[in-house]
Structures are given as structure tokens and as C-alpha cells.
TrEMBL record:
Its main location: membrane. This is MIP family protein. It comes from Nocardioides baekrokdamisoli. GO terms for molecular function: channel activity. One of its GO terms (cellular component) is membrane.
Length: 226
């Protein structure tokens, strides 16, 4: 692994770890601060997640800031990263996500690993994941293909905050985050048996998003073409 790829992998690991820590940690805090108020708990969880995304993308974007294997997959499909590099980055994202969940559990005085018992297995939730991931890909790569990368942090943070509410699945939209969230039996957790279909639907959503991005924005930016 060359130094540039190592730096990118480190940025993806760190960024995804902080993202998952924000998702899981704010979920735990929300249930403790606002018990028996699910709407308020979701509001707190979504706002913290969106804010964390903005900060993390702004900070790490000069190195690498996908924090999401399906975003990295689409980058590879569009020729923005090599496939071998994409595989390394995806592994770093998954490892970072799991570490973030463990740290969040420990910060709130829970067992480092507690497998979630929160079942999320239904057709409407799977559709929600397709929609959530499709929208995320459109937001990210719409900005990239039109040369507005400086807007990505704010666009992604705003979109994920909104998608927590308008999708039935509360917008996981990220295989690394989905895998990590099964290691925390808390507000944001997902039962292991529910994970595979969530990831499959995220890949479907990403594929549809990639097709639409190519159709809507057929012209490469100077960065993509180089």
C-alpha cells in the first residue's frame, strides 16, 4: 500500500468511526435525556448525525471523506478511484464503523459489544433503504459531476438529517454504518439478521443512483477527466 492510499484509508477509518460514534452515541444520549419520547429522540439523533457529517466531511474531504462503501463503489464505477483502492477504503470504512460503535458503547458505560435485538425486517423498510441510498448518491455525485464539491458537506448533512424522517428505515444508506450498528443494542441498533437485506437494498439504491447521475450529468468535470 502506498502512502497516499494509506492516508486515504486512515481518513476513511477515522471519519467513519466518528460518524458511527455520533449515530450510536447520540441515540443513547437521546433515550436517556428524553425517555419515552420517540419523536424527540429521533430528532436529536438526526440533528447530531447531520451536524457530525458536515464537520467530518469538511475536515477530511481534502484527503478522503466518503465514509460509505456504496459511495466508494460508485466512485469506482465512475472511474474516480481504482477498484483495488476502493476495496481497501471500504474495508477501512467497515473497521472504522465497528470501532466507532464500540467506543460509543463504552462512553456511555455499556458493554463494548452488545448485539442489537432491534429487528428491522419488512418490505417498506427495504424500500426506504433503496430510496435513502438513491437520494444520497444523487446528492453526492450531482455535486461532483457539476464541479460543486465545496457544497457536498452541507448537502449530505442536510439530506441525511431529512432522510431520517422521510424514509421508513430512518436512512441507514451505508453498509459500514449498518454493520457497525448491529454491535450496539441501543436506540440506533439493528439486529444482525436484518443487516444483509439492508445492505442489499443499499446496493440497489446506489446502482439506480449511479444510472441516474450518468443520465442527468453526462459531462465529466475537469477533475474527473484528468
Amino acid at each position: 500500500m502506498n502512502l497516499d492510499l494509506a492516508r486515504k484509508a486512515a481518513a476513511e477509518l477515522i471519519g467513519t468511526a466518528f460518524l458511527v460514534a455520533a449515530v450510536v452515541g447520540s441515540g443513547i444520549a437521546a433515550t436517556r435525556l428524553s425517555p419515552n419520547a420517540v419523536g424527540l429522540e429521533l430528532l436529536e439523533n438526526s440533528l447530531i448525525t447531520g451536524a457530525a457529517l458536515v464537520a467530518l466531511i469538511l475536515t477530511l474531504q481534502p484527503v478522503s471523506a466518503a465514509f460509505n462503501p456504496v459511495v466508494t463503489l460508485v466512485e469506482a464505477v465512475l472511474g474516480l478511484v481504482r477498484w483495488a483502492d476502493a476495496a481497501v477504503l471500504a474495508v477501512a470504512q467497515i473497521v472504522g464503523g465497528v470501532l466507532g460503535a464500540i467506543v460509543a458503547n463504552l462512553m456511555f458505560h455499556l458493554d463494548a459489544i452488545s448485539m442489537s435485538t432491534h429487528t428491522r425486517s419488512a418490505g417498506n423498510l427495504w424500500l426506504g433503504e433503496v430510496v435513502a441510498t438513491f437520494g444520497l448518491i444523487l446528492v453526492v455525485f450531482g455535486a461532483i459531476r457539476t464541479g460543486r464539491t465545496q457544497t457536498i458537506a452541507f448537502a449530505v448533512g442536510a439530506y441525511i438529517t431529512a432522510a431520517y424522517w422521510f424514509t421508513s428505515s430512518t436512512s441507514f444508506a451505508n453498509p459500514a454504518v449498518t454493520i457497525a450498528r448491529m454491535f450496539s443494542d441501543t436506540f440506533s441498533g439493528i439486529e444482525p439478521s436484518s443487516v444483509l437485506m439492508f445492505i442489499a437494498m443499499q446496493v440497489v439504491g446506489a446502482g439506480l443512483g449511479c444510472v441516474v447521475v450518468r443520465f442527468l450529468y453526462p459531462h465529466l468535470t475537469e477533475t474527473e477527466a484528468s
